[in-house]
Amino acid sequence: MAAAAPATGPGLGSGPGEPPEGLEAEAPERRRKAHGMLKLYYGLSEGEAAGRPAGSDPLDPTDLNGAHFDPEVYLDKLRRECPLAQLMDSETDMVRQIRALDSDMQTLVYENYNKFISATDTIRKMKNDFRKMEDEMDRLATNMAVITSFSARISATLQDRHERITKLAGVHALLRKLQFLFELPSRLTTCVERGAYGQAVRYQGRARAVLQQYQHLPSFRAIQDDCQLITARLAQQLRQRFREGGSGAPEQAECVELLLALGEPAEELCEEFLAHARGRLEEELSSLESELGPSPPAPDVLEFTDRGGSGFVGGLCQVAAAYQELFAARGPAGAEKLAVFTRELGGRYFALVERRLAQEQGGSDNSLLVRALDRFHRRLQAPGALLAAAGLAEAATEIVERVARERLGHHLQGLRAAFLGCLTDVRQALAAPRLAGKEGPSLAELLANVASSILSHIKSSLAAVHLFTAKEVSFSNKPYFRGEFCSQGVREGLIVGFIRSMCQTAQSFCDSPGEKGGATPPALLLLLSRLCLDYETATISYILTLTDEQFLVQDQSPVTPVSSLCADARETARRLLTHYVKVQGLVISQMLRKSVETRDWLSTLEPRNVRAVMKRVVEDTTAIDVQVGLLYEEGVRKAQSSDSSKRTFSVYSSSRQQGRYAPSYTPSAPMDTNLLSNIQKLFSERIDVFSPVEFNKVSVLTGIIKISLKTLLECVRLRTFGRFGLQQVQVDCHFLQLYLWRFVADEELVHLLLDEVVASAALRCPDPVPMEPSVVEVICERG
Hints:
By secondary structure, this protein is mainly α. The protein has helices at 28-42, 46-50, 71-81, 84-194, 197-213, 218-244, 249-261, 266-291, 301-326, 332-358, 367-379, 381-386, 392-431, 443-466, 479-482, 484-508, 522-550, 562-597, 612-629, 650-653, 655-660, 670-683, 697-717, 723-740, 747-763, 773-782.
């Protein structure tokens, strides 16, 4: 197979760019060497290159791809083992493989021949370049040898002169120093006259050690004396300039620095430096204090803090930095003196700032105040870090926290005032006369207005105090504003405090003196009860959820649970509604009591119609029903009988009534009548007049009617009735029964109470002759 695969296809002649003609005639060893190089280039192993399956014997003579392949042995094996058809198939397959190998070999030669040619040219060029480089390196070595030789000759020639030049240079430097020393007095004088005090002090500092060392020599001693006189005059001028104090803190610090360099006592300079700094800073404080006076209009708080920050705080920073730079060598004593100085003046500045901030407590907008506090706090961070012992940063933070607490208290008062203002508006709307042809706002509209107004004020207050926790504010990352301010300040102090204050204010209307509830309109009690009930069902949860979302509490201190506030609101609503029932019941009771007490029941005429007060009672009860229905649901009633509106009382229409008021009943047998009445009461259901009121219209009206009818019953028991008086009570009670049964939860309640009224009137009547039920019905229908 290896012998049958020479690449001799067309296009492999001796033309340009083609392999030479003797390529096929190369020795097998050279072919194997080229084949091995190709295998190495393509990264093929010996077995992969030969196409031999893994695990085959490399010495097998029948291995077509092996190195020890023997054609005769392979043919003999095929003839022995394979039939004719398989032999023909093997021949066809072998021819196909030979052609494929020829094509692959031809392609391989075409693809790699240009690469071989390019590699040959590259190697040839590299050989030429390396020859040129070797020549240049040889020339460079020769030149370096010549340079080394010349350098050695020059060094040998100039050795003596170099030593002389070094000595002369040293003498020259010494002469320049001596010249400087001899010219020093005149230089100092010139600098003093020109005001170049810093240059004069530097000259003096350079020459001081030398003059001190050689002061035993007369010439140097004279120079030193002259310099001391000039230096004394210089120090005097610097002190004069320092004491005048017309310049700023940097110039003052420069004077002190020069005086210290001249050897002036540091303790004395320290005292004078702080004294002059105190004077300048007190002028700044006086200027700020004058702006707080009553005569000139005070600048806004932001402008005030800007002036204080740029004037006083900036000056204090300069003083502190200069003091530490100048007197740092004085140790803890000097630092303590500066801390006391800073603490004293800083306290006065803080007092002025608090006075100005107190003037901003009246407004409701916190934006300008928070910006002013932010700048105030920022400006004090630098001196606070520079003078940690003075505690300026901590004091500034305490002021900001105190102002935040005051603002929370102010917003709480604002919410309380807004709530009271809403109640005042409701009072005015309820008391305002109805315009001609126009109805005033209903209770439902008033309730919606009050609820929306209060909620709007709460949201505005939350937005206002939320500015204290904004990320861009420098003090918002303080522990107080990340914890206690959010939980105890905003949630507990502002929101929970307002809700409890609102409940207390609402409950205070239940403590009004007088039978008619004082000056509190009953409609206001009803409205407040519904408002508290709405807060219990939804509003409190919404407000606290909104607060917790806006103020992410990182404080673990206990807070008031929502259930506790809801319970307080529900109890307040219950008390208000109960008080409303009592007030409205007392109003109707007053009418009934006066109508009973002011009438002569013994000499009254035979009834022809229903008394006007009973009509008024029905009208007022109907108005209360409409009023309560605007805010509360209907409620649950017991099943009503079909003849409720036509029923007459059993006390005068049943067999019991006939037995009680039969002709045989005479005043001579009072014990039997009383006994009958007492026996009836034993079997009748006890009526609780002041039972708890539920949050629905039926329960409210039931409570009012029970109070009214119970008052009527007690008033009847205190009067004495004639025959026609009893009949008038009979007519009035039947009229009330015709209309009041529809307002209560159980119509039997009205029947029982009215039965007792008529029965009590009969007991108080010497001649109890009742009116016929048909006549009673006719009178009531006509009335």
